[in-house]
Amino acid sequence: xxxxxxxxxxxxxxxxxxxxxxxxxxxxxxxxxxxxxxxxxxxxxxxxxxxxxxxxxxxxxxxxxxxxxxxxxxxxxxxxxxxxxxxxxxxxxxxxxxxxxxxxxxxxxxxxxxxxxxxxxxxxxxxxxxxxxxxxxxxxxxxxxxxxxxxxxxxxxxxxxxxxxxxxxxxxxxxxxxxxxxxxxxxxxxxxxxxx
Length: 196
Prior knowledge:
By secondary structure, this protein is mainly α.
């Protein structure tokens, strides 16, 4: 669909009513509509992604991400890919990286921080990573996940669906239990549930 065909289109209503009210209160709805007409997708449907973040992403990369064949290449270009320097097959000492060279990485990191107390799947992901590895890594990992979602939406039109924090926690617990069962089985033991 060309820009001329999208000119009269309206962005669909946000499912998150609280986010929709916040955008209205800030007076960002006209800009949200303009960004939707420019890109053809509503990036604000992704939790944590506000109108300002969409503006930064579209101003740096535009609505066409076809120059990045895979989402990994896009994430790497945004400077949200883990860095593993190796030379001669041996890992080098990690040097502290400077700040991200793109405004998109900074905007996505700020969006990731806002997920700390969110009752969404991204919020549950942030808290799970923060519990295991730490807050700094959780911000980086959540920002990376946001970049992947943006790529999928802009490149393929794949809609974002929030399954909710409870569903994510349940799935994570089931996967953890399965790993424990496999480990116990490999060691010759069998896990049995505790009776009340």
